[in-house]
Amino acid sequence: MGPGERLAVLGPSEAGKSTLALVLQGLIPRMIKGEMRGRVEVDGVLIHECRPRQLAGRVGSLFQDFEAQLFCTRVDQEVAFGPENLELERPEILRRIKEALLLVGLEGLEGRDPATLSGGQKQLLALAAVLALKPRLLVLDEPTSDLDPLRVEELLTALERLTPSQDFALMLLGEDLRLARHCCRIVLLERGQVVADGPPAQVLRQVETFRRLGLHPPQLPALFHDLGQTVLPLTLEEAQTQALALSGGTARRPPKSPGEAGMETSAAESALTAAAPEVLALRGVTFAYAGGPPIFQDFSLSFRQGEITAILGPNGGGKTTLLKLLRGLLTPQGGEVWVAAPHGQPLRVGFVFQNPDYQLFA
User: In this predicted model, which residue has the larger pLDDT, 224 or 27?
Assistant: First the structure.
């Protein structure tokens, strides 16, 4: 990879993406032991001849377990930690804090405790801390995993602006096809082996390879592949031109999609559960984290027996806080959390955290 190059390394779980990130950071084989052969060179330096701290200014990594990278009690202190250890002057450290937080959309949260941020905001904070080091190679492992669609768009747009101006190479690792946007090269991995390597216009048309790896291929090439076409368009313009040619210049209204049919079914099911008894409810709840503005104010929401409810919202919108209130992990400053008690026993509420590592200990 050269300065300014953007590479997307895509592959299923266990393909070796995270291992690659650890190698580039120098954590393999220094801290994570195993058998390693060959040479890895970054910015003119051989990785195996350096300790991880010597690579801090050369290789920046956002790990898949990004919360393991956070340990300070203030957002601005988290971003300042790296530049401070590079012994930069205070004005330069303050400038880097402001620049990094602005880039990831966390400006205004400098005084917040990272523990009170949402999962997506924590991921962006870890990225800001890495960006503040001004690395020559930036490696992001599954950077879209905890971000809502809007934040993903903002992140990818920010990275697009950043790489040419900062003159560093960017490597994006994951399963999300959105990572390939604006990349000049894509590599597909399978069990530590490269199965495809080339420009996006070439690799993104390999529908069968994506499916064999258990990855979702781009929708347009997949559609035309399934129609038995040999020419697979990547853009809407290409698809429209090819579709008109195939239909002789006429267009037909497509049949009702599975999604539309599913929405009609869901509406019918909702009508049946509307009269079901309540099992869980927030009633006039007000809640705020210490030193922060209210997340909820006089907020009410109920859940009925038999319902399947989707709670959607952007990062920092209060989704995780809402679930913690329902589970009793947080206590509201006002209002009440009501739980049904059939046969005199309170309803048991199961909860899978956003970060499942918190729940694994045996």
Answer: 224
Task: State how many domains the chain has.
Answer: 3
The pTM (predicted TM-score) of the whole model is 0.66
Of the three residues 236, 257, 284, the one that is the final residue of a domain is: 236
Q: Quote the longest CA-to-CA distance of the chain.
A: 70
Q: How many angstroms separate the CA atoms of 131 and 233, rounded?
A: 36
The reported pLDDT for the residue numbered 90 is: 95
- Helix axis angle for 119-131 and 75-85, nearest 10°, is 20
Contact present, 172 and 8 (Cβ < 8 Å): yes
CATH number at residue 340: 3.40.50.300
Cβ 186 vs Cβ 29: under 8 Å = no
Domain check: are 286 and 341 in the same one? yes
SS3 content of the chain, % helix, strand, coil (to 5): 40, 20, 40
Amino acid identity for residue 335 in this structure: G
Q: Cα-flanking dihedrals φ and ψ of residue 132, to 5°? A: -65, -20
Would you say residue 267 has pLDDT above 80?
no
Residue 167 has pLDDT above 90, yes or no: no
Paired tokens of 6: 């953007």
